[in-house]
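Backbone-to-sequence.
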């Protein structure tokens, strides 16, 4: 029964947490999303972000309420393990590990979406948004990684570096 509850809670938390992280990232790099994306993002997350902004205002142009909201969602979802007898300290560490993993997996997903757009339809309506979201990751790599036969391999290098980050994160938190 705990497994089913955890599955449901994790699915809902992943959607809400992903939206909160996307909201933070869009505002951090100052990307204006298409109306449909903005409406979806803000409608799904305003109920949590607006009250948090009273406690945690944006500082330095960053929407800290969205980022902290995403962590609180992860912490709440991980708290289901308290029912199974896991200690609070362990739940807190696991929540931090999951939160950092979600961030890395979010970047991986954005890179994969950009690759698919570039192969299938580079002029898709959401392609400019995805390119803008990935640009802060890819720009430094594009300075270092040369074009090979006219192909930009910086996306592949970024994916490998993010996979390495996941492995290191697992080693730090003792999950690998």
């Amino acid at each position: 029964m705990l497994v089913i509850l955890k599955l449901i809670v994790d699915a809902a938390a992943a959607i809400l947490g992903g939206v909160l992280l996307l909201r933070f990232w869009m505002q951090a790099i100052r990307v204006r999303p298409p109306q449909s994306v903005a409406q979806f993002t803000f409608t799904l997350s305003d109920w949590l972000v607006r009250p948090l902004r009273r406690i945690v205002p944006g500082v330095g142009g960053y929407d800290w309420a969205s980022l902290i909201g995403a962590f609180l969602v992860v912490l709440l979802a991980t708290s289901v393990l308290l029912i199974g007898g896991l200690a609070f300290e362990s739940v807190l560490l696991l929540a931090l590990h999951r939160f950092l993993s979600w961030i890395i997996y979010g970047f991986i997903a954005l890179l994969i979406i950009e690759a698919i757009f570039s192969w299938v339809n580079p002029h898709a309506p959401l392609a400019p948004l995805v390119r803008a979201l990935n640009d802060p990751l890819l720009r430094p790599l594009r300075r270092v990684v040369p074009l090979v036969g006219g192909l930009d391999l910086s996306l592949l290098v970024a994916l490998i570096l993010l996979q390495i980050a996941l492995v290191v994160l697992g080693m730090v938190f003792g999950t690998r």
